[in-house]
Amino acid sequence: QVQLVESGGGLVQPGGSLRLSCAASGDTLDYYTIGWFRQAPGKEREGVSCISSSDSTTYNSDSVKGRFTISRDNVKNTVTLQMDSLKPEDTAVYYCAAGARGHCSGSHFYPGGVRIYGMDYWGKGTLVTVSS
Fold this sequence. Notes:
By secondary structure, the chain is an all-beta fold. Helices cover about 0% and strands about 50% of the residues. The strands form three sheets. Strands 2, 4, 5, 6, 9, 12 and 13 form a seven-stranded mixed β-sheet that branches. Strand 7 and strand 8 (about 80-85) form a beta hairpin.
């Protein structure tokens, strides 16, 4: 059983940056595909960024491409989402998720540009608010 805990959310002005962390216990994260998802009020949850278990290839949705970066720290057993040039539309609760057989890929043929599925474990989320 893997437990995931997100941290790093908060209030930031448009154009600012935040760094979210997803800390794991119960297993080593480098065996898992990791996804970051978000859900804004009144909207469906969407996949934002992911990193594969096989070769740590990363993919980002079209809405965050060029602004968000996902990375692993195998020593700390965490996955980080660096968020730069934040916009009000990035306001949401952000969740990390892990899947031992998870899928992570990106293509301009996909709605939103990224496809993430097969997540087995989820954190409880951290709120990001982008507002002046």
